[in-house]
Fold these 2 entries.
Entry 1:
Amino acid sequence: MTTALITGSTAGIGAAFARRLAADGHDLVLVARDTARLREQATELHDRHGIEAEVLTADLADDKGIEAVERRLADRRNPVDLLVNNAGFGHKGRYLEVPMSDELTMLKVHCEAVLRLTSAAVEAMRERGRGGVVNVASTAAFVPRGTYGASKAWVVQFTQGAAQDLAGHGVRLMALCPGFVRTEFHERAGMGTDNIPRWMWLDADKVAATALADLARGKSLSVPDPRYKVLMGASKLVPRNLLGGISSKTGRKYGPR
Ligand SMILES: NC(=O)c1ccc[n+]([C@@H]2O[C@H](COP(=O)([O-])OP(=O)(O)OC[C@H]3O[C@@H](n4cnc5c(N)ncnc54)[C@H](OP(=O)(O)O)[C@@H]3O)[C@@H](O)[C@H]2O)c1
């Protein structure tokens, strides 16, 4: 029996990873801020799949929250075999419209927490000679798309660099780059989604299943859908300024303030 720790497990892509991994017989450590929702999820996954699901309430925008998850990942008596750094959020607003404190919170959750949790997990995995880490980035990492895209570009570069440095130690690291996925993400950020064409939406369960298959194949980067693979390939041919113009207009329509 192996154990997976998922941050942001209670909704969207994280919940899809939890369902997939529980169905495959993995025990889980579920991490998010809402304890009641975590407990409900743990009970449901335990009852449906017979796996053990621990609840770890932690705010990854806070040092204490990050430290609590680091401690769990470093626990050699209860090893974590797979870490999914998934917790994240979007901002309602373009550059300079978002308060600096919110920009810094995004860097804390998307970059500092990912660096610290990956490092805590990978040290223990390297000792055992096996383990895996999926860091959820975005296709926004590859196009000019505000501070969100910049934070996700960091996730991709960090993950692929670390994967290179750890080659030969039995530890796999992969950056996952989905396009638009139907989750709570846009509503939480107060973003309208009317201007996102229907064909661009991905299903969270398919994204999680493809990501795990790509990790098993040893990929360090997963773009989990053929439509987005084509788009990402084509985007390399488009001048950066034009790409930035298109990208910043798609899926950034803001709902009522
Ligand atoms: N949806 C998309 O279109 C899309 C596309 C590409 C990449 N992504 C990335 O995919 C990841 C998951 O997004 P999603 O779409 O599944 O979002 P979601 O449906 O809004 O779920 C976000 C999850 O993260 C948790 N979370 C948020 N802030 C947290 C914090 N400070 N500390 C701990 N947990 C926190 C939430 O639970 P609590 O509120 O209880 O903490 C929730 O479980 C993010 O990294 C996002 O950037 C999303």
Entry 2:
Amino acid sequence: MTFNPDADVSGNTARRRGRGAVVAGAGGVGLLGIIALIAGPLLGIDLTGLLGGGATGGGTEPAGGSVIEDCLTGEDANENVDCRVAASQLALDGYWEDHVEGYRPPQLIIVDGATSTACGTASNAVGPFYCPPEETVYIDPTFFDLMQQQFGASAGDLAQLYIVGHEWGHHIQYTTGVMDAYPNNGTGPDSNGVRIELQADCYAGAWIGQMTEEKDPDGVPYLQEPTEAEITDALNAANTVGDDNIQEQSSGSVNPESFTHGSSDQRQGWFASGYKYGLDVCADPLTAAPGEL
Ligand SMILES: [Zn+2]
């Protein structure tokens, strides 16, 4: 249980499901997309839609879709993963409004099946990602089931919020100019890409460390103080999505020169630093010496 059962999460107007045609492409900043690209076949994730190079038949309904039903209270968010992801944006937007001047919320699309985006296809096989030109976070919550089944992660409620918070972090990076200042310069253990990803982990940790501060219109905090077990679970998720762990699972060996997101230790470490010390330390992944990343 992560949300306060009594919290009013009905004020979330942006939630909707995306559903539509499958179009191949790339360009989003995914937390976990790399899993699908590297480890997908081994782990049994179906990449046909991604690798086939085009639309895969009948789904021509444009992105848009329907409101998530029965997503009114924190209790609904605790019980329904779609509602949980949708409701988390209330707490995320509140947090970032407090910390970024002129904050502009991203759009959140809860993907149901697959949907085409300016950054390529969104689906559970691709994993959650942020699409900069659309300023949109795409998440198919069934991805969390894949994390459990394919990667052995428990992927509990707080771990799911860590992932949403990470994608929100990319929106902050895009809208505050960090992405422009640290453009893609290839892979590797101290590449800009890894630094950006580790900062997004730090941002997620910073938010979770203060996530009880955002309240509904009646003053009820949206979220409850996380338990030790929930924090451990979120750290486990960060461990699972480390490049070394993914490489080890997919090929049996680790090649830091192809790192895109950082090692398991780094991802857990920056999440934990953000959680413990707050946003003040989250500029550090951008500038830290390679040995201190
Ligand atoms: Zn990311």
